[in-house]
Every structure is written in structure tokens, then in C-alpha cells.
């Protein structure tokens, strides 16, 4: 595992963490030095802490209290990448104090599933990896958004280990073939599950349906390309798997709050646009 510090400030740090472990590597116990809120951007892995266990997929957010021991395993595939936001407990307490209706700064669950409310922030963080000023704003806003969303999230039913493995395989296929049209029946058949059981298990493991997840990944990657390249918007839309430019524009505006053209023009001056849909 390699960890590269992207930015830091009083009470917060941001790291780009890349892991190359696979099924042959045994997990080992680690400890969160500070409060961890880490966005998974590539790969899948299993995360275990004192508050539970979960499969982490791209778009999901790992949660860890300061001083909590944990393990990360790669039973279902090789490698992952995360943008890890680390906070001191006092810093997060200050964030919580400013959120109406939120009383706790500790985490009772190991992760947040992929969400349209967090995706704009994750995309902005990926696009701003060389901009310390933008990352400072994102770090603060990401902490608030994650804690607020956690306060609204109820406990999820625990899937079986076998179902976790099969859904992880499906997630990795979606990630590798993100621009292709992957039907529910085809995905279910590829992991030897009935469509109904696959849909129910996918929602339990990932936190949304396969189609919702595919669209979320496509929009997140398109948003990063809009900020990092000068490629035509139509090219980015089609490369991301959207066969219709108007559909891409409509979905992008609904999730990101502005059109792709405005999002690109704003650049670092507006690194986030967090709107529920």
C-alpha cells in the first residue's frame, strides 16, 4: 500500500491511498490515527472494524473513528484506491456542532453506500488533487455531508459472504465495462444468481440498484474529465456510456446542480454542488 499526502491544514489531511493486495494476501490489523472518511474511487475490498463489516465499492465511503482498530481484505479481487480524508476529533466536533439535528461525531456503521449527495464531492476531490485550496474546502464540506447523511441512514441487512463475493465480482465487471450496456439479467447470469436475488443482494451490498450504480459511476468519471481535460462534452458523454447527449446533460444537471458546460467553466471556483435528487 502506498499513501501520498495531497494537502493538509489545521485538523485535517487528505491522502491518495493505493493498495495492490489481493486474495493471496492476509489482512492485518491497523488503527485509525484520526477520524477517517475515505471515498473509494477504484476497486473493491472488505472492511472490518468494531462497528461491523462491509464491502467497499467505488463511490462508497469508509468510516472510522479515531483510535479504532480495523482490517481491510481483498478476498474478491486485487487492489483498490481511495481518497482518504483524515480529521482530528476536535475538528469533526466543530463540523457536527454546525449541523442542525446531528448530535454525534462517532460512527455506528463501517461505511456509507454510494450516494448522489456525495458523488459531486468525490468527483471534485479527484479533479482537485493538485489544488490544496480546493481540497481544504472539499475536506470541510465532505465531512459535513458524510456526517449529515449518516444521521439519515438506517442499518442495512447483512448479506451472506457468498453473496458479497458474487456482488463484488459484478461490481468489478461494471467498473471495467462502464461504457457498455450491461443488463440486469446478464449481470445476474454472470455471477450465477437469479435476477431477483441478484437485484436484492446488489442493493444490500452496494446501497443502490445496478443501474443506479452504473449511472453514478459514469457521471462521476465524466465530471472528473470535464475538470481535467478540454475534450468536447459530447465526446466525454459518449465515452462514458451515454448514447444520448441530452440525457447526459439532464442527468448531470440533476445530480451536480449545473450543466456540464457550466461545471467545466466554474472549475476550482466552485468545487462542489451537493444536491439531493
What features would you describe in this structure?
Strands 1-2-9-4-7-10 form a six-stranded antiparallel β-sheet. A four-stranded antiparallel β-sheet has the order 3-8-5-6, with no helix packed on it. Helices cover 43% and strands 20% of the residues. The chain has helices at residues 89-97, 119-127, 132-152, 161-176, 184-190, 195-206, 210-228, 233-239, 245-256, 260-266; strands at 2-9, 12-19, 30-31, 35-43, 45-49, 52-56, 61-64, 69-73, 80-87, 111-112. With 277 residues, the protein is an alpha+beta fold. The radius of gyration is 18 Å and the shape is globular.
Task: Walk me through the topology.
Layout: E1 2-9, E2 12-19, E3 30-31, E4 35-43, E5 45-49, E6 52-56, E7 61-64, E8 69-73, E9 80-87, H1 89-97, E10 111-112, H2 119-127, H3 132-152, H4 161-176, H5 184-190, H6 195-206, H7 210-228, H8 233-239, H9 245-256, H10 260-266
Antiparallel strand pairs: 1-2, 2-9, 3-8, 4-7, 4-9, 5-6, 5-8, 7-10
